[in-house]
Amino acid sequence: MSTATTDIDALAASLRAAIGAERVISDRQELRTYECDGLAQYKVVPALVALPEDATQCAAVVRACVAAGAPFVARGSGTGLSGGALPHADGVLIVTSRMRDIIEVSPADERAVVQPGVINLAVSRAATPHGYYYAPDPSSQQICSIGGNVAENSGGAHCLKYGFTTNHVTGLEVVTPDGDLVRLGGRAPDPPGYDLLGAFVGSEGTLGIATEVTVRLVRLPESVRTLLAAFAGTDAAGAATSAIIAAGVVPAAVEMMDALAIEAAEAAVHCGYPPGAGAVLIVELDGPEPEVAAQFAEVERLCRDNGATEIRIAADDAERALFWKGRKSAFAAVGRISPDYIVQDGVIPRTALPEVLRRIAELSAERGIRVANVFHAGDGNLHPLVLFDAAVDGETERAEEVSGAILELCVAAGGSITGEHGVGMDKAKHMPRMFTDDDLDTMQLVRCAFDPRSLANPGKVFPTPRLCGEAPGRRRGAHPAQEAGLAEVF
Amino acid sequence: MSTATTDIDALAASLRAAIGAERVISDRQELRTYECDGLAQYKVVPALVALPEDATQCAAVVRACVAAGAPFVARGSGTGLSGGALPHADGVLIVTSRMRDIIEVSPADERAVVQPGVINLAVSRAATPHGYYYAPDPSSQQICSIGGNVAENSGGAHCLKYGFTTNHVTGLEVVTPDGDLVRLGGRAPDPPGYDLLGAFVGSEGTLGIATEVTVRLVRLPESVRTLLAAFAGTDAAGAATSAIIAAGVVPAAVEMMDALAIEAAEAAVHCGYPPGAGAVLIVELDGPEPEVAAQFAEVERLCRDNGATEIRIAADDAERALFWKGRKSAFAAVGRISPDYIVQDGVIPRTALPEVLRRIAELSAERGIRVANVFHAGDGNLHPLVLFDAAVDGETERAEEVSGAILELCVAAGGSITGEHGVGMDKAKHMPRMFTDDDLDTMQLVRCAFDPRSLANPGKVFPTPRLCGEAPGRRRGAHPAQEAGLAEVF
């Protein structure tokens, strides 16, 4: 476990000897650059920063941490929104931004192999000349790293059709919390043994650090068509979404923005969305031309049948880009209409969309806190933006209450406390809303198996760290059979 | 660990007290019924059989085993082909065939919830009236159980397009090897925390027993079209397969049979495949009608361009069923042309198909052992059927050598020792061909976390069981940093 007794100067010397002094930062001013990730409300200055350039150096850093008993936190581009890469004050922040090689692009077996610091969009750029791309597309794809995507199992607008990061990573090279380099998965589908690859993707830095990532490439679609439909409100837009999915169409993306989000996007990027709309849907279809053509006509009809007041069809790539510009810049745009805001992230079953949106509106009215909604409607992944002014007495607290209450709504509707931003530092406290003690304990058995010293990103994901020395199954004092009233059996 | 000192009579009494005498089998004659699964070359009579009817009973059985220190093995329908459900002579075989309730079919959120003993095809039958089906379709789908599919991460002909069992299970209730009931995953996509669901699917009974399975339902396609193309040999058929995939078409299935497999199928089920064909491909497309129509024409053209000597298009469901009858009965049909045979299961990258098939033919000629090939060509999942006559001196050994050499070919080509049948008892010895000691040790850390007593299906999957008491990472005597020549760092 981390300790205030770690000798930071000695650890810095170990790191310099292992990977070279030019890859270790110990200057306090420089260290401050790394004090937070995309969730800027939490700030911790790390004791040291290491910038390894390959897997061997990364493993050497972890081994030095193990030897010193110092915690370590991995960080890619630092765009995460749950504080998953928040540094540890007594530990080493291992930054992967110098591990940016695209090792291989192999169209013949539809794979790319990259280092973890490679930017998401760079994979698609390297694959496009071969007729392929990398499908998962977080809004931050121009800057976020593949390693961070792996840690958080990142989603994006097109994950409705194509799945999350976990559906696109087939192999990893990983530094375990012991400092071993191991391979999980590979290039072929469905390797034998436990699917530790699957467990690692989304483990938020608690099971080790990915040093090489093998991803699936997806063939560029023959045809892409995008429409933007305006509705009187989110109820009608939600009904249109349900009708599209119920018709058996699987769009590449179905995105919704409500009136407040539209207002913000207009103020920021002048995307020209229909004025006065209570909600807009962006629906994108891709695939073989005959399929897209037939289904696009159906989507247009279903939007009209469900009360669309205006439908625009992107005439060319420039117009499509404009539709998306409003959506992809919406989070930042909210800064134009509110001094402060919380980006919330939850999931609900798509069928619960109208009810949950109504309840969010009620919460907003009750507490006098505006909430803008921008989200992946197709898979029920909400991103409510809770607006407030920290300068107004009590508003921060009320905004946090509303934000927390929204998560309660998601869980009560059969959903989840996070869709794609991860648990990280921010949502660890919410985990017991979804999981029983037994469920969380079972997860922590795996954490302890990988990281018995609790040095890999401690304090994240789990609300109550498990003491790894406890015997599994014997952690509640009594034998489980006795607790279950089965003592007479034995 | 298992032990000859387990008092079987006392354990039987515990089980009877826990779940009722009518659900416990201890009669030697009755126990023999369970001595093997689909891989009949290994036979072990279990000490006891338990037939729980719900999750609580299943957990009670596991707790009784834990209390007695007795190993336990779960079994569904017993159709597995890797000996994964081979009983333990001193342990309890936990048979799920009385857990056959379809708990819920929910078209609104495209999920079904079933008990583990439910037959694969029964899920589709329950979903069809709602316009849905369950996609993974092992050849044994009329008899294999969903619980067994989860344990082995079963595939099937249509997994090329739709993915394996792991892509279709969103939630599980599981009895851990401690006897706790926990939930992994749920109904929503992408829950937070470790994806233990993914690790559990395909863990072959070593991490616990699934007692409730939530699966994705897939909408019945608007259109299905199937063709059967004959070729001079597997080279031409393989080239056609590659051409189809390279054209960006993702068929629902691309299945290949070579001359010997065709001969066997004809002898058994008179499916009327083109006489004299050196290989046949069955290509099935499904999806929206306009897509299927456009792509089907292209598939037909690509088959002709690559030397198809005859192409038949299924005129109706009856003819489609006939095409598939030959393919799906091929394994059993081989019994018509050979007294004994081994069903092998390996994966290769699709691009290596022609070369590996040629090498298998050379092996066959060199050793005088016939090999029939029936396989999922689209995703490179081979099923060579190695034919022999156990009555002929030395043939069994030569057949086993050829079968093992085929796996070596698969691994050397960048593939895997199993595609969908699992490692089980049969292939544990081959695991070191694919994984380093560190890789296997990392997997076993997870096994030890779940099952520190090694009671859950011991002897399967791993060639060398790990002693769970060993400190992780410290198992090779030296500190890893020293081994890596990094001792000077510390």
TrEMBL record, chains A, B:
Entry keywords, A to Z = FAD, Flavoprotein, Oxidoreductase
Domain FAD-binding PCMH-type, residue spans: 42-220
Keyword field contains Oxidoreductase: yes
For this protein, the record's PROSITE patterns field holds:
FAD_PCMH
Cofactor(s) essential for the protein: FAD
Q: Name one Pfam family in it.
A: FAD_binding_4
InterPro entries annotated for this entry? FAD-bd_oxidored_4_C, FAD-bd_PCMH, FAD-bd_PCMH-like_sf, FAD-bd_PCMH_sub2, FAD-linked_Oxase-like_C, FAD-linked_OxidoTrans_Type4, Oxid_FAD_bind_N, Vanillyl_alc_oxidase_C-sub2
User: What is the name of the protein in this document?
Assistant: FAD-linked oxidase C-terminal domain-containing protein
Species name: Plantactinospora siamensis
